[in-house]
Amino acid sequence: MNLIGEHTDYSLLPVMPLAIDRAIHIEAGAGRLVEAHSLSETDAISYPPDAPPRVEGWHRYLVAAVSVLGRTDLGVRLLVDGDLPSTGGLSSSSAFTVGVIAALDRLWQLGLGSQRYPDLAIAAERSLGVEGGAMDQTVISLARAGAALRIDFDPLRTRVVPIPEHVKMVAAYSGTAAPKGGSANRAYNTRVVAARAAALLLGREVEVDLGSTPTLSRVVESGPDLIENLPEVSSASEIADALAVDPLLMTGLTVGTFPADAPLPVRAVASHVLSEARRVDEAEAALVAGDLDGLGSLLDRSHASLVGFGASSVRLDALVAAMRDAGARGARLTGAGFGGYAIAVCSEDRQADVLAAAEGATGGPAFPVVASDGVG
Fold this sequence. Notes:
By secondary structure, the protein is of the alpha+beta class. The protein folds into three domains: about 20-140, 2-Layer Sandwich (Ribosomal Protein S5, domain 2); about 165-180 and about 270-370, Alpha-Beta Plaits (2-Layer Sandwich); about 185-270, no CATH class. It is about 40% helix and about 15% strand. It has helices at about 60-70, 90-105, 115-125, 135-140, 180-205, 235-245, 250, 265-290, 290-310, 315-325, 350-360; strands spanning about 1-5, 15, 25-30, 35-40, 45, 75-80, 145-155, 155-160, 170-175, 330-335, 340-345, 365-370. The strands form four sheets. Strands 3-6-4-5 form a four-stranded mixed sheet, with helices on one face. The protein has a four-stranded antiparallel sheet with strand order 10-11-9-12. The radius of gyration is 21 Å and the shape is globular.
């Protein structure tokens, strides 16, 4: 669950998530085929390791995780269970992908270790067409109990940030799923491409070399002063024509491409991403200082920015408002948005009230968040 730093990771700007005390459990044993059974899903799967099938649903992530390890000579029998809700925005697909890789690492004695898991899981998920960043897989692999994990991406660095005992957190479901597919996938990828377009335009303004992939991390120092110069809406083809560049700089995704003529909310995306990166710095300082009010204010500002960014929903807004009214010091949507969960911070004496208000607003689930270790 991301405390703060939303939609920044694919621009190689910082995030500050934590692992929660909900998990997917995987038992693994040797076998000739790749077989998997789930105690919560009805369909099992079985296939030869050298012939991965084209499949849908949770099987897609299994096949991708096994395939990315490149061992077509080894089979496995897997049993999957857990208490982490799926399709709700709590990174269940990334948790499953990392979990399968970790289980196979141990069963097959590959000697990879948790530092290698994020890159492998990212490659597996991107093979399925989701142009996400690296936050989910990194925190699931490397998180520590009692702390958030500050992650920087340009270059990659992580830092454990302890959460003071008096800072309590609540997670609550909006009642609307946040699947990594369909319209949500298109909405997500639209913002990835818009961020690249904004980076190209701002890079020209400040004469910065953006390298092979334009990211807002390269203009984070001077870009905020020039946001008003960006178009509210444009397209990759229009920007490519104006800058005399290949539109694939913006639209080339890991799998497939994005339509070059699709409308992009360039200014809103740049405004949110660059301001959200600053809020990560400020939130880390607030945690170090034990400043609950300051941290809450940052969550509120993050949510307001995400509304303008287009990632919130009527139900998420109502949920956030209900938790604030019940005594939360701050609240915001967490995860990619377009449905899913919200997170609130509060004092211990108001945590029960915030939980009750969240459940009353949406029907739940809502639960206290305990910052926990990652894959283990």
